[in-house]
Specification:
It contains four helices and ten strands. With 192 residues, the protein is of the alpha/beta class. 29% of the residues are buried.
Length: 192
């Protein structure tokens, strides 16, 4: 069965978005977990889909202009991730979306459909977010590994990553790395 890995960036106080509705502390939205060679499918929730699609499409369309969301130029890692995102099958969990306009994207009506994907041959399935999707998949036992980038910041208010988790989960720390920018990368396996 294929492995399912969720990766998220958050503050020390567990927020993935600040009071303004986005993570203005994240300098690059590229994959910070060195997972790209291992991944051949991505899953995200419908709440995250439109912004995700817009962000990576904007970079792909004009990698040398400042981004609308951040005002910053895309990093070389973000340009690489934009290529990856546009060429990798994506699955959007949604009971309400009628369709999507992004190529290589399929709407899944039920989280159980991820189990069908897991049984097919392939590489790792990457859950890119959002918070409710990660929490829901964690609760149903779908996620095998959780990778977190912790930013050295306390925002106090915002959207907590695990606000909707309905049960206790035991995690096993597999790896911890500090980076020169002050972030910490944590890799946990999920106790089953």
């Amino acid at each position: 069965m294929r492995k399912v890995v969720a990766g998220m960036q958050m503050t020390i106080d567990g927020m993935i978005d600040g009071p303004s509705g986005y993570a203005d502390w994240v300098e690059s939205w590229s994959d910070t977990f060195d997972l790209l060679p291992e991944i051949d499918a991505c899953v995200l929730g419908s709440g995250m889909y439109s912004g995700y699609e817009q962000y990576w499409s904007e970079i792909k369309a004009d990698p040398h202009s400042p981004l609308e969301l951040t005002g910053n130029l895309p990093t070389s890692e973000e340009i690489e991730y934009a290529d990856f995102a546009l060429n990798t099958p994506h699955y959007v969990l949604s009971s309400t979306l009628d369709g999507v306009r992004w190529a290589n994207t399929t709407v899944l009506r039920d989280a159980g459909e991820i189990d069908v994907l897991r049984r097919k041959p392939g590489k790792t399935i990457y859950v890119v977010g959002g918070a409710q999707t990660v929490s829901g998949l964690l609760d149903r036992g779908t996620i095998d590994e959780l990778r977190l980038t912790i930013h050295p910041l306390v925002v106090g208010e915002g959207k907590a990553l695990f606000a909707t988790v309905a049960q206790r989960h035991r995690l096993q720390l597999n790896e911890a790395k500090s980076r020169p920018d002050g972030t910490v990368s944590l890799v946990y396996s999920i106790g089953k």
